[in-house]
Amino acid sequence: MNSIEGTDPAAAAPTSSGREEALHRLVIAVAAARLSGIAVQNPGDDLPVLLLRDGHGLYLASDFSRENVTAWLDDAGVDATVTPHDHEDLFDELLKITPRSTEAIAALTAAILQPREAARKAAALLSTRLTLAGVDARVDDGGPGLVVVQIEDFDWDPDSCNVLRLAVLLGGPEAISKAGLHSFKARRRLHRRLHLLLAAAVGPGAELSWDDGCVHEPDKVTVRLPLEQAARLEERLSWYPESGSRSRSSLSASAPAPQATTRGETPGAQSPAAGEASMPDPSSNRKAPTMNSPSTTTDEAQAERDELVRQLRDLGAVRTAPVAEAVRRVPRHLFVPQEEREQAYKPQAHVVTKRDHRGVSISSVSAARIQAFQLEQAAPEPGNRVLEIGSGGLNAAYLDEMVGATGQVTTIDIDPDVIQRAEGCLATAGYGHVVARVADGEEGVPDRAPFDRILVTVEAADLAPAWVQQLADRGRVVVPLRLRGITRSLVFEREVDHLVASEPEVCGFVPMRGAGELQQDLLVLHDDEKGRVGLRLDGITADAEALTAALHQPSVQEWTGVELAAGAPYDTLDLWLATLVDDFALLAANQEARESGLTTGWSRMGLSTLLYGKDSFAYLCMRPTTPERIAFELGATGHGPSAQQAAELLAGHMRAWGDRRDDQPTIRAYPAGTPDAQLARGRVIDRRHQRFTISWPSTTSAS
User: Fold this and answer.
1) What residues are annotated to the active site?
2) Spans of biased composition, class Polar residues (predicted)?
3) Is 586:607 a contact under the CB 8 Å cutoff?
4) Residues 586-617: pLDDT tens digits?
């Protein structure tokens, strides 16, 4: 039997007589774990320690807990210990699985691979069916024998609503009323109706949840299906022609419409009655994407790249012809791991390529949207010399296309594994001439300088002196810079004795490692079944005991009268508050914290927060102002003895932003040691190498 308490795994170490077999099984276990998204700590001659990370190992147990993981190991016949693993991030809960013997390694290998492989195959097949049917959904394996379908909708226009589309596929156009979907109650009725249609189509076992979005997040529908029900849903959709040329508008009188079925029945082929509305698609001339695989033809891959460019233009990420042409030319799927290739041409999808021993992502292929807008920011020209800091290969290929035969691209990373992978992908894709080196990004590459463009693809908290020194006179540095916890991709250019930034873009990147690493602090305020709440602190300190007590006191709210339309951008608000608030932090909370009443909002990255004295704080919140949830009002939630004062102060700053929400900040970087009198007016943020200022049009000093 497995134990929850730790034991000494060394007692069962392999003997020398079985050493060859033990090493063979060890290699298999390590490979299996890595393929399944589980980090392996200290593999080698000793028995491995596998780290199971919440969100990346959920296929191992129906509920992520020591008890359930232990029970799963018992059922799988794996003799191993399960213990908590110390970790730094409150939101990355880890368990440590230590096999007691080489036989346990073999059993663990089979237990990891078999259920994941079955779920992956079912998810891939269902994903293809949904794509062919015109439903934009993400389908993944979600557990042993479990498939998860996730659908997001910002736009509740009946002509483009993915949830409505799925409902029509299940029940026919006559099954759902398309009127009034902007009404919250109408969408709830659709939710209930969709649940009934799913039950009729696939039988019992399907679970459907609906998470209401807000002004900056879409509504999300999640369907969890056991493998048997996933197969029935795939069969339910199999009437749809297997052709990427048929658009979403194919549910018309000329196409067979599905009928609601009971368990074991197959869909009929009855067409909609005359006069019934079809589902027109504003993008009906687009070609549906195909699944990427080693056998993907040139024409299919080119069609996927053309479609990606179209979507990136719609998102505003691609704005110029050179960037569009680079995205069209580079075979993006060759830079994505085989098991994740279906994500390659999704504009918002990123793919993790390496994790550390804690299971935390340390290298990834960024989402196409982020890569595209960074290329637009850098705007490399033919003949330019470009340095990329933080490698993966794909971005270097895009840059190589843009600088042409007369330019040069150098890509570096501190991790030898990352560079080895990048070199292989570049060679496979036809970009083997790009120079890839193992180097600490803080140092740049002096022997290949000067650079017309320096593109940083990891989160930085400072600008290294080497970047400034190796930058050509009229060059630019594009960097995802974290200031006071807020990260924006910025374009820095020289202005006399300092650098000036423009074009802030919201982004997220893995943090820089090496000499330039500067982590934030996480102050844990609450962590139990009611939720997780913490404060992310970037360059400030706070009283954990006092603020924990404040969180558990009754809250107050102050509303601002500042309204935002659903989907309207407000990305400058966080920077505005980071400029004006002296003790600025980010309140990170999970969804359970909001549902239990600990907080009035949730965000893993964090909500802008004002610390008031040592024992009170207030953070940003929102509420809908219409039943249809098409507009939202900004507000502040306060906690602690001075909750009201804190909320009023934060709300006042938000009202000031509301009067000038179209203003853009100017961010400047001065060498460390620059006297205050020579700095621009605004908030001053001191780092090791630079003194940064954030200022706004016509503002006085906020420092």
Assistant:
1) 366
2) 281-300
3) yes
4) 999 988 899 899 999 988 889 999 999 999 99
